[in-house]
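Title: Prediction job returns without error message
Component: structure pipeline
Severity: low
Priority: P3
Assignee: unassigned

Description:
Job completed but the reporter wants confirmation the result is attached to the right record. Sequence as submitted:
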Amino acid sequence: MNPRGECIESAILCIAAANLLSETGGGLTAILIATMWLPHRLALLAVTTLALAGCRRSVPSTQYQTPDVQGDFRVDAWSPEETTVWAFLRPAGEQEEAGLFLTMGKGDELWAEAGGRRLRLETHPEDQAWTYRGTFRDPVPDGAVRIAFERRDGASAPESIADLPDPFELDPIPAEVSRASALEMRWTPAAADPLEITVAGDCMEEAAFQVKDDRGRYTLPANAIKPVEGAQKDCDADLIVRRTRPGHPDPGLHDGSTLLASQARKVRFRSVP
């Protein structure tokens, strides 16, 4: 795509991200949590259009010293056999520039480690050039994941530590659910970490519900999910229950860096009026 086309695409995505920012109250942490239910590409684009202005572009990470690099990391465990680590780097502090992200320059690498296994975080054709990820296909011992920004020249930042919340199992729900009726859901075990339930589908307005006191169950109120005007009356929808815990970015990175670790479980159902 030519630069002009990239700018047009960016403008469209910025509008979508602006709506998302408004709904979530702003802030990277809110966006990271709120976008996890979105389709794969849209979630990544929402995170990377934080600036909401101008064309997005990237430059090599080697142009910046480690304290001027902000790392935004996410660790998502969808099951014991699937834990994905995400990394986004951008200049920060006095070096910050709207819409600017970092790709790995010569000698710079991103790695994740769990249970003695090392996984290189890489870009993928379906992602933006500055999106790095990798997936562990085996259980993560003790829920501990270490993310390292390793540099051949300059100071590395090898100790961003994620501690995954306790895993849980989500009970099945009916295959068809009326939006006019209450929906009870259950999971085991309960835990002290914050928990959020999101529901999304083409025929409904996306909705998120915070569970302040996790007792292993929650009832979605009748009519809490609003239909989209002009859309079809029924559609497939995804319900995600997500337990999230903040991690600890390496102190060598910019102090605005973030790390979130979550256990998430998803069920699909047919939403009807």
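Comment from assignee: result matches the submitted record. Residues 1-54 have pLDDT under 50 and may be disordered.
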